[in-house]
Design a protein that fits this description.
The protein is mostly beta strands and about 100 residues long. It has one domain: SH3 type barrels (Roll), CATH 2.30.30. Helix content is about 0%, strand content about 45%. A six-stranded antiparallel sheet has the order 6-3-2-1-7-8, with no helix packed on it. A two-stranded antiparallel sheet has the order 4-5.
Length: about 100
């Protein structure tokens, strides 16, 4: 079980985009692609067959998982994540600061 999954709301805790929030779009090993975080300019060639326009486009680049923290709405910022086994034997993610369950 991963501490951060696709679709989670995360916050950048280190780097040039520190403080930005976004949703995890894709996971590539220990790097994650987060929407509107770590943007880069890409010079894209047009492809009329696919309907892709040419020009300079903004693209999300992967960011290392150590620079991200799961967003805790009750705290209002990034928080560390741990695991806990419930009474029924189900393993869930919990926030370290307040012990609140992340998975519903």
């Amino acid at each position: 079980m991963r501490k951060i999954k696709v679709g989670d709301d995360v916050m950048v805790v280190a780097g040039k985009d520190k403080g930005k929030r976004g949703r995890v779009l894709r996971i590539d090993g220990d790097r994650l692609v987060v929407e509107n975080v770590n943007m880069a300019k890409k010079h894209q060639k047009q492809n009329p067959q696919r309907g892709v326009p040419g020009g300079i486009v903004d693209k999300e680049m992967p960011i290392h998982i150590s620079n991200l923290g799961l967003y805790n709405p009750s705290k209002g910022g990034a928080d560390r994540v741990g695991f806990k086994v419930l009474a029924d034997g189900k393993k869930v993610r919990v926030f370290k600061s307040d012990g609140e369950v992340v998975d519903v």
